[in-house]
Amino acid sequence: MTALLRVRHLSTSFQTEAGLVRAVDDVSFDLAEGETLGLVGESGSGKTVTALSILRLIPQPPGAFGPESRIEYDGVDLLRLPSRELRKVRGAQIAMIFQEPMSSLNPVLTVGSQISEAIRAHEPVSRKEANDRAVELLDLVGIPEPGRRFRDYPHQMSGGMQQRVMIGMALSCRPKILIADEPTTALDVTIQAQILDLLLELKERFAMSVLFITHDLGVLAGVADRVAVMYGGSIVEQGPVRAVFEQPAHPYTRGLLHAVPRVDRPSDRIEGIPGSVPTATAWPSGCRFHPRCSECMKRCEVDAPPSYSAGTDHTARCWLLDQSEGQRQ
Amino acid sequence: MSESSPGPLVAIENLVKHFPASTRLFARPSYLKAVDGVTLSLDRGETVALVGESGSGKTTLGRCVLRLTEPTSGTIWFDGTDVLALGSADMRALRRRMQIVFQDPAGSLNPRMAVGTAVREPLEVHRIARGKAARDRVADLFEEVGLDPSLTSRFPHELSGGQKQRVGIARALSIEPEFLVLDEPVSALDVSVQAQVVNLLTDLQRSRNLTYLFIAHDLAVVRHVATRVAVMYLGRIVERARVVPLYDRPLHPYTASLLSAVPVPDPTVKRKRIVLAGEIPSPRNPPPGCPFHTRCPHPLKDARCTTDEPALRELQPDRWVACHYAENPMEKPAP
Amino acid sequence: MRRLSLAIAIAGAAVVVLRFPRIMELFSSGAAGSIVAAVCAVLVPPAAGLAWHWNRRPGARPSESRTARLLDNRQFVLGTGVVALLTYAAVIAPVLSSFDPNTQTDLLGAATLAPSLQHPFGTDFYSRDLFSRMLYGARWSLGIAFVAVTLVVVVGTSVGVIAGVTGGIVDSVLMRMVDGGLAIPRVLLLLVVAALWGNLGFFPLAVLLGLTGWFGVSRIIRAEVLSLKERTFLAAARALGISQLRLVVRHILPNLVAPVTVTAALGVGNIVLIEASLSYLGIGARPPDPGWGNIIREGHELIFTAPWISIFPGAAIFLTVIGFSLVGDGLRTALNPRAS
User: Fold this and answer.
1) Chain C contact for B176, CB < 8 A?
2) How high is the mean pLDDT of chain B?
3) Three-state DSSP class for C157?
């Protein structure tokens, strides 16, 4: 498998009144053709900013990318592409769906017209043709009576239906990559199951690569081929989904897996991670997880750990994995 | 405190809450049946979980119990007192014994009030303590919920979500209630913090012998905290049972579907999910017969389900189900 | 804001030094009004100096607080500066001016003199010193605006809170009253009053302006209360058994501070304008007493021969309105909790 999208040393920061906020710090990952990479993290971990950076949807200023940052799609660095060229990539090659379908849809336009507008933005087709395609897309994403629902306004639809519309709109130009930012978080579990099934089915059908962003390890386990765990603006662990869930190498990943209550097995007590999630205005020194880590060592407080191998295609940023000399001082 | 009456601490009988829903001036008044005849009781020291999707009426039910929303009809007994018959002065006195913790820790605290003041206020209102005694009480409460007492002078926006929720719990506990409605108390929190708060609630329950009505949509959390579970659908309870039998062998097809839809954080578990078709119907216009029949995946579903509403029956001791075919439950999807 | 305190302190000190004989004269005059003005003139510079000094200390205020955001807001500081100087000048009017505003010094020789050292703003048709008239006019115009706005805020907030909190019939009745009030053309109403009772005094006019100006404010406050009522923290307070009165005083009112102060600040400029139009129409300040509006009226026939008579009061009104708008905008930005 070759990497379709290559993110290297991505750093995204924001200039605010409170100072420079380094929301994403030195993030690197690959997204291979046809794979689903799950980006998991808690609030403020930088997962959404990472996704928005890929399509350069970060307002600049106050946002800025570090000089080392590269986002290569098809051999082209998206961060250095002129905006006219970038618009051809957005939507057509890389599409995105968001957590809140209601706020992503324009409330005063019918859903059909919004989809056909998205099509006409990228392809020279007539309005009639675009409308026909829009109805097909509504049918594709499982909306009953697509011809009639075409003329519905967003508020006439439920959250699940709105998310289906968003998916349809994202797929209107057959993108190679779909970025899904917490697409099911606002939905009930039974609707979440429907949307996840739909996404998996469409991904197979159109041979897309998916960057799936979520805070829910359960959802992640069901959809991802590979997993990247984010904490404090950087990726702390990355690897195949089974390896990460079965042999988590980073204490944060281990803590997170213990903290999730499971519906399929009883247990009296779930163990949380002490302390609270840090905010980008005040990252801890050294390893950003050290104040909450049960295995914290002296050096963790001072130096940020580099990425170490933890198995095949499996890496983690933790000093515990350091095999070099002088490790156990 | 009063151990006066034996039997359940809280008993809800046939509770109904209809919201007027007609928007047009001369149209016949229509009603949104948020809660439609719910009967439920809570014994002292137990946690009864109320689960269901959005629009199931679980939050409205919780607010009705405290009379934050006035129920349309039905009865609520609290320790032998008919809550709905109380005048406003008696009701304020009863509020000392029943409290609520809300889902949104940020929204449930007054943004213009220091968090210590927010916890102290009920002490002063109910004349439990004032001045230094009240401040000492607040410091003790902060410690009890795992907060540094030096945080009392902070304002809500200066605290993290988990800390705010702890303040909300401290405030609810300040007047020593016996009964707490926990309205999605951990849904807005990050996973790593959620577990801390869940454990705090369990510890407080043990040390203070509290009774919880735990409202949640996350069935995984519920499995870890509840003694009994009531599953709501369209304002009605469709299944009510102790937690172990309910999770091991759900008898109502809705409970079975709901449980199977919860994702499990384990990539090796490829469960066969029952994916429900369609969505929860509008409570303004609920379907006739069994409210669940429009989405029911039960193989035995027939015409009777579309016309007769199944009663909530006690199939086994402490096991109530509202399904015509509860004796032949759907097979649990094989793991 | 620190610089502003310093500027006021220096300006005030300069006034005390330069007008020292006049201040002594006022003290010895025995008239209560003169003594108050003299005392203010003496006390303001040290007070402003102290404020400057206090704010200079490191850590004088937490940098994250709303006050800090407010004081860092340029618009707000500029607006406050303009407003403070105008108010200050009005309060110490007798100290600053050497002439009585209504004395006709020399009808033949000193009428419509252009601005000079002796008469900084010139004189009018009746040879009265325009600088004095402007200062005393500020007392009238700003005074009426402050009194009227206080009334607007108190009545508007009370009605808005009562309507929003109570709801139901009370709300409907109050809001229909407000609709009625908004439908009455204000200037026309005041013209009718003036026609019936002749020129009004300071307080009757201020009260009348206040009582006809609160309708819009009550609407804004009511909407704010309704949106607050949806917030969970009010449900939490109710669940804790907190009484309705305490709910309003401790939980609703503090959350209304922002909208109320903003409307008040913007309201002052508005009232100054209305009062000026009324005076221009001849139903405001009673001649020969000065108000900015009737100074303009007196000058408008001489606009080409003695333009300064109209220009100075016009500029003062302009400055006041701009100043209060800046204060209002600054407050709106700084008091918005989401602006952090």
Assistant:
1) no
2) 88
3) helix
Question: Which residues, other chains included, contact C32 with Cβ-Cβ below 8 Å and sequence gap of 6+?
Answer: none
- Contact list, B162 vs chain A (CB under 8 Å): 276
Structure confidence at residue C339 (pLDDT): 43
What are the sequence ranges of the domains in chain C?
2-96, 144-334
Residue with token string 């003329």 = A151
Phi, then psi, of B153 in degrees rounded to 5: -85, 0
Cis omega (within 30 of 0) for bond into B333? no
pTM of the model: 0.81
Q: In what order do the strands lie in the sheet with A226-231?
A: A94-97, A177-181, A209-214, A36-40, A226-231, A234-240, A314-316, A308-311
CB contacts of C254 in chain B (<8 Å) are 110, 112-113
Query: What is the per-residue pLDDT for B2?
Result: 46
Residue partners of C47: CB distance under 8 A and separation at least 6: none
Say how far residue B9 (Cα) sits from the centre of its chain.
16
Which residue of chain B is at minimal alpha-carbon distance from C66?
A: B112
Q: What is the pLDDT of residues B68-122, one digit of tens each?
A: 989 999 999 999 899 999 988 888 888 889 999 998 888 889 988 899 999 999 9
How distant is the Cα of A242 from the closest Cα of chain B, in angstroms? 6
Triad C114, C120, C122: Cα angle to 5°: 30
Q: How far is B189 from chain A (nearest CA, A)?
A: 9
Q: Where are the domains of chain B?
A: 10-97+177-321
Q: From residue A300, give the alpha-carbon distance in Å to each of A150, A306, A318, B298, C250.
A: 56, 11, 8, 55, 47
Would you call the peptide bond into B297 cis, given omega within 30 degrees of 0 as the criterion?
no
Chain C hits for B92, Cβ within 8 Å: 241, 243
Q: Does C248 touch chain B (CB under 8 A)?
A: no
C66, pLDDT greater than 70: no
Close Cβ partners of C191 (under 8 Å, ≥ 6 residues apart): C281, C283
B120 touches chain C (CB under 8 A): no
ipTM: 0.84
User: Which of B109, B111, B125 is facing C240, going by the closest CB pair?
Assistant: B125
Distance CA(C271)–CA(C291), nearest Å, equals 13
C56–B contact, CB cutoff 8 A: no
Q: Does B3 score more than 70 pLDDT?
A: no
Q: What is the 3-state secondary structure (H, E, C) of A105-140?
A: CCCCCCHHHHHHHHHHHHCCCCHHHHHHHHHHHHHH
CATH topology for the C144-334 domain: MetI-like fold (1.10.3720)
Neighbours of B327 (CB within 10 A): 11
pLDDT range class, residue B24, cuts 50, 70, 90: low
DSSP B278: S
Q: Which long-range contacts (CB under 8 A, 24 or more apart) does C131-134 make?
A: C131/C96, C131/C97, C131/C99, C132/C93, C132/C97, C132/C98, C132/C99, C132/C100, C132/C101, C133/C101, C133/C290, C133/C295, C134/C290, C134/C292, C134/C295, C134/C312, C134/C313, C134/C316
Q: CB under 8 Å to B96, separation ≥6 — which residues?
A: B126, B175, B176, B177, C241
The predicted pLDDT at position B1 comes to: 44
Cβ–Cβ below 8 Å for A277 and B190: yes
What's the whole-number mean pLDDT along residues C234-253? 85
Chains in contact with C, where contact requires at least 3 CB pairs less than 8 Å apart: B
Q: How far is C21 from chain B (nearest CA, A)?
A: 50
Q: Please tell me which of the candidates B93, B100, B107 has its beta carbon nearest to residue C231.
A: B107
Sheet of B31-42, strands arranged across:
B31-42, B10-20, B73-78, B81-82
**B48-62: pLDDT as tens digits:** 999 998 888 999 999
**In angstroms, rounded to a whole number, what is the distance separating the alpha carbons of residues C126 and A279?**
70
> Class of the B10-97+177-321 domain?
alpha beta
Are the Cβ atoms of A264 and B261 closer than 8 angstroms? no
Tell if the CB–CB gap between A269 and B202 is shorter than 8 Å: yes
